[in-house]
């Protein structure tokens, strides 16, 4: 990076009560070197604490989605107060296979629609993390949500190689350029 250039800014919003959410937040914080990463715990954050970054990664535990309507308002009321205009958002639903029932998946789809209606530019190109294990793209659902279909990020103990592949795809999807690649 040359003098006068600043790193892109990515805010990772996570839930500290969830091991999977914590694991992804920590992995992104330590593995992304081409952007400034700022972690924000949704359980303690106020709207003023949410970084004013162009890029948001929502690392949300599926177990907190109790019903298909608007469960995120109970779990993370701050999500309803954030301005999403002019922001690129990566929505990650995290958990074990037991977390991915139909109601929770519907709730995640509803949150995606809600974020879009609030002006978020949702990133759809990222493959499911399991794609890197199988070598084949994993089709999630019609809305191309990003979530592990079985197992969880922390239980799969992502190797550095797999995490680097996902992060490179993330960088490409966010259309972030860096002078050193």
3D architecture notes:
The protein is of the alpha/beta class and 181 residues long. The chain has a single domain (9-173), classed as Rossmann fold. It contains 5 helices and 5 strands; from the N terminus they run E-H-E-E-H-E-H-E-H-H. It has helices at 19-31, 72-75, 102-117, 131-134, 160-173; strands at residues 9-14, 36-41, 55-61, 88-94, 121-122. The protein starts with 8 loop residues before the first strand and ends in an 8-residue tail after the last helix.
Chart the SSEs and their pairings.
Layout: E1 9-14, H1 19-31, E2 36-41, E3 55-61, H2 72-75, E4 88-94, H3 102-117, E5 121-122, H4 131-134, H5 160-173
User: CATH H level: which superfamily?
Assistant: Flavodoxin domain
Task: Kindly state the number of beta strands.
Answer: 5
Beginning-to-end CA distance, first to last residue: 10 Å
CATH C-level class is Alpha Beta
Indicate the percent of residues in helices. Answer: 25-40%
CATH architecture: 3-Layer(aba) Sandwich
What's the order of the H and E elements? Answer: EHEEHEHEHH
Q: Give the overall silhouette.
A: globular
User: Structural class, please?
Assistant: alpha/beta
> What percentage of amino acids are in beta strands?
15-25%
Number of domains: 1
Output the keywords.
single chain, Rossmann fold, alpha/beta, 5 helices, 5 strands, globular, 5-stranded parallel sheet
Give a brief rundown of this model:
With 181 residues, the chain is an alpha/beta fold.
